[in-house]
Amino acid sequence: MKIITTLVKTFVGGTVAAAMLTASAISVQAQDLEPISPIALFHNGWNDTKLRENGQEENYEAFLAQNFYGALAMSKDGYSYWYAGFHDIETARTAVIAWCEDDSPPEGIPCTIAAYLVPSEVPEGFIHGLSATAEVEFDEFMSFGDQKAYAISPNGAYAFTWDYGSKAEAEREAINLCNESAQAKSDWVIGQSASCVLFDYLSATGQTSTEQLLQRPNKK
Description:
By secondary structure, the chain is an alpha+beta fold.
């Protein structure tokens, strides 16, 4: 039996778009997942009170309702921009800065990161390099046999396959499915490649403190 499933969810500026591709199975729905809860980490002098001022409270609340990894940027003229659902902090930062600076009049005015969304805890066995929803579904993926593969895209898309005739076949199909999902997101996510790569899940587990994880992104 061959089962292929992929779920991609993207959040852009308070709106939600989802795309799902299935064959022989239906993917777990996002609302049924129970990922580790996120926490907001503030940067560059911003805090919860300041982000609720100047008419930006609704957009800020929408950002807080998402899951890791995410980033919220502020433009020089006081507007907020955010992305969430990426596989790492740095990609979220790069993407939201690109969007903010591209959209800010005049084009190119520097934007700054005001907050990140990161895991509130990093327990033993935590999978580094996956978004919250991908990390939850990864538990099921790891219970399958050897002929499987997990692919991810920098823009947050992912796909996994299992029960194939060979690992090479599983890898090719995972890449193909992930690329289809990534292309569906490419119109919304600025400056991020839609090309998928195989996820090195054998070296992705480990125990890192939340404090160490939060120190990784570069400030801008």
